[in-house]
Write a structure and sequence with these properties.
AhpD-like, 0% strand, mainly alpha
Amino acid sequence: MTNDREPEHSPRLDLAGLAPEFYKSMVRLDTAARKGLDPVLLELVKIRASQLNHCAFCLDMHSKDALAAGESVQRIVQLSAWEESRHFYSAKEIAAIELTEAVTVLTDGFVPDEVYDRVAEHFDETELAHLIAAITVINAWNRLAVTSRGVPGHYAPSAR
């Protein structure tokens, strides 16, 4: 069997090596944002934002992290079509996914009140603040990885 795959691209730059203080600050920001949030729900949010932002590096990372946290392959695969696959997710997860989309795709302006109200039904104010922070952080990571051309396929989850 021959390998007829395209060669992988090269990264544009090593952000962590060239801007180490910034990179370490992003890692600390990510750690602070996730406090009190369910790890599986958090990975669903990160995967959905990464899908919307076309970030292959982050999709690779967070799909692997989700699997390591106990998420099913089926729910990860269905996430790109969650509106037609709602029965795979809880109402709380759907609310978080809706908020992720609203925060990630701001071309229509602001986060709609009905989306915010739905998510506020499932998260207390502290959790909601952390969820908004986590969505903001993954969007920043997506933009960094897409711009620096992070190469997907080499990430391995660390032992938790």
